[in-house]
């Protein structure tokens, strides 16, 4: 759905405009509810990548 994304670390649905942090993973943008989720993702992206929406 346009404008929304799932934070793959905590599973929270967030509006892309309101994301506290973003990261690039394999050419796509990943959105996070806060910076600690981004740090957790960046530490081990493959662990969380499967939770990304399609
Ligand atoms: Zn989060």
Protein described:
- The protein is an alpha+beta fold and 54 residues long.
- The protein has one domain.
- The protein is built from two helices and four strands, in the order ββββαα.
- The protein has a two-stranded antiparallel ribbon with strand order 1-2. A two-stranded antiparallel sheet has the order 3-4.
- Strand 1 and strand 2 form a beta hairpin.
- The longest helix is centred in the last third of the chain and has 9 residues.
- The chain is globular, with a radius of gyration of 10 Å.
- The termini are close together.
- The model has no long low-confidence stretch (mean pLDDT 93).
- The structure holds zinc ion.
- The site of zinc ion has 8 residues, from loops.
What's the layout of helices and strands?
Blueprint: E1 4-6, E2 13-15, E3 21-25, E4 28-32, H1 35-43, H2 45-49
Antiparallel strand pairs: 1-2, 3-4
This protein binds zinc ion (ZN).
Features:
binds zinc ion; globular; alpha+beta; 54 residues
Q: Could you tell me the mean pLDDT?
A: 93
Element-level helix/strand string? EEEEHH
Regions with pLDDT < 50 over 5+ consecutive residues?
none
| Biggest sheet strand line-up | 1-2
Q: Compute the number of helices.
A: 2
Distance between the amino and carboxyl termini: 10 Å
Rg is: 10 Å
Catalogue the ligands. zinc ion
Largest sheet data: 2 strands, antiparallel
Structural class: alpha+beta
Measured as a percent range, the helix fraction is 25-40%
Overall structural domain count: 1
Question: Approximately how much beta-strand content do the residues carry?
Answer: 25-35%
Shape category: globular
Number of strands: 4
